[in-house]
Amino acid sequence: MPDQEIxxxxxxxxxxxxxxxxxxIEARVTQGYDSVVAELLNPGEDPGIxxxxxYRAYPSYFDKAAIETGQTEWVYRMINNKYxxxxxxxxxxxxILCAGDNKVDNARTTAIQIDxxxxxxxxxxxEMLLMLSTDPAMLYYLDNIExxxxxxxxNYGRELLELFSIGVGMDQEFNYTEDDVKACARAFTGxxxxxxxxxxxxxxxPFEFRFDPADHDYGxxxxxxxxxxxxxxxxxxxxxxxPATARFVARKLYDFFVADEPPVPSWRLAEPRDMDAIKQLExxxxxxxxxxxxxxxxxxxxxxxxxxxxxxxxxxxxxxVVIGTMRMVGxxxxxxxxxxxxxxxxxxxxxxxxxPPTVEGWHMGREWINSGSxxxxxxxxxxxxxxxxxxxxxxxxxxxxAIGDVPSSEQFLNGCLDLxxxxxxxxxxxxxxxxxxxxxxxxxHSNAAEQGEFSRRAGETLQMIATTSEFxxx
Length: 474
Fold this sequence. Notes:
The protein is mostly helical and 474 residues long. Among the domains are: 1-31, no CATH class; 124-241, no CATH class; 386-472, no CATH class. The protein is 55% helix and 3% strand. α6 (84-94) crosses α8 (107-120). It is globular.
């Protein structure tokens, strides 16, 4: 049975970040759970990575003309940002407040939006919605640039309510009406983009927000029961004080960090998995004046988060598979060739960063797994964990050797599972792996030749663990 403090800390670092090496997990246990949570929730002001080294190695990051460049930079940040929760929150918001470069077609503008999620992601939800409502990528993606006081486009107003803040309904009731959508859309008329520099011969430049007062509808509007000469800022104020908004944010946080919830469209009829947990998060939302960090403070310190029943109960997202594996094996911890190929892996598994398939985003949980994506997930993780030249894998092997002179197959397998999790396997799978190890003979490592064979078999065992169904959960 793994040490409970190690298991809890590993759980925290998987959910509040992208996992960690065993050395870091043990160091964090020594630091103490409460202290680690406080550190995660209070990131510093510096970038969290050595940007000068990154830009020196990858000059194209100064000018993100292609989405692949932005994706690669983001993956580097996920692997290396010492403020792991800040980086995880940028992905959290990207999966909710969805705008895709497949329509925006301006990779620098799309990358800037991700930077904003990183900067605003742990702050105030009202400020987040105000930022989103002036974000050029979102205004373009949801057609607010086509919304005028004489010809209102409802796309942004509708999705702001349906998918970004309130949701269709809760507790069997609808949260808004079609008239609310219309009033919301009218309030955002004139929230547009500044004229752009011609693409040729200068290339694409980032879009910029511009409010056009001549195109704004200043008429009286009734929205969610309140009547006035509302503009977009007033709409955000009204949204944020709704109980449905607290429920929406709470369920999204619970779904991302604790356990899978059903999709948003079903929330009117589908009760939360843990209503008591949701109520705690809703209270933190209102008590703090809509502060996300206050909600996260409650979440990470709560019994419902620490509960063993929610550990390894969420299917890893493609980002968790790729980034978690890289951090475990200790690869690309500094700028070097080959990062582009790693950065494309989440896309092959179904998570095309900066390119959500629709404004609804990705379907999470078990829908990450299908016959095609599973092969990619297994191939990537097993290829990394089986590479005995990588520093993190070498560290695992050294720890396995420290178990004893000739560990039994069961001891060896338990050591492997402990060091990549700690995780467990179904008894049938365990038996198959120990039978395979027994067939290979004694696990000796007293001389160079035996150590080489021990390392090979360790890499092989780690590869086999990566193929198990249990490895797909985190």
